[in-house]
Amino acid sequence: MKFLAVLTVRNEAAFLLEWLAHHRAVGFTDFLVFSNDCQDGTDTMLDRLDAMGLVTHVRNDGPYAKGGIQFTALKAAADMAPVQQADWILPLDVDEFVNIHTGDHTLPALLAALPDATAITLTWRLFGNAGAIRYEDRPVTQTFTRAAPNVLYWPWRASMFKTLYRNDGTYAKLGVHRPRSPNKDRLENARWFDGEGRALDRKFATNRIFSPYGRPNHALVQLNHYPLGAMETYVLKADRGRAVHSDHMLDLDYWVERNFSTDDDRTVQRLAPQMQAELDRLKADPQLSDLHQQAVTWRKSRFETLLKREPFRALFGRLLMTPPTRPVSQRAARYLVHHANLGRNSDPD
Asked: Which among 234, 236, 240, 241 is positioned nearest to 256, based on CA atoms?
């Protein structure tokens, strides 16, 4: 059984080895990784990992399609051998970690719990900043343990999912959140389930990208999403640019909608021993170890450079002044949704 993770990265070498080690422990067998315009050695690290037979590295240096950097990479991936040969596929970002709650916490255990599934939605659980200011070279999954409540009522973006799907020809193309270009003759046999193990209705097979919010979505599996990191890391993320909306600089709106820190969730650490063993093996390679340390040094140096520029210095100052995000009550969320529906249904004139 081939489980393929597809990843797009830029200037993420300091985080890449942990991400790879964790997902090897989860049960992914293959990795197709696209890099673009890296200054921190991410592309060189991926070249080394490719030479070691651990990933397939593709440089995604442009030009880019209208949908942006990540869309361009996923569009190209459809015709590549790792995708053609995969049994199951999951496009991910480097700040997303699969966290399985059933069996031995691996992909085969998840499929055993949902034997009829041809697609499984992995709903985000957002992990907030929790007051971390400076970047430290420590595993993300052990540094950030404060998360959003298991049930959120707002915003809908907090309930977005990524899709683990069987590569059986039902979908011809990869998508950021869900597979695209369905084969209408095969859709009848598509069986979508959510992270609670609930069978999903037919509309999920063609056009949904977020789970119904205001209810639990994580009993069997969740996608730990660490979109912020330390404040220093977030400034570098703003400098790096967005993979989808690359012309939009990250600011406080993105931060506030994701900086939930009300609950403690350390469940991903059940695989910490296996992840650490994989990480130790990776860092035993002298070239990978050196590239990792160079990336850590680069991040520190780049942050000092950015603080000399007003947009980034102002952003860092605002982060220091902004408290953790307060979850919206169910009543307030209903009020917002009501007016959102009014706006959607009103005459645009």
From this structure: 234
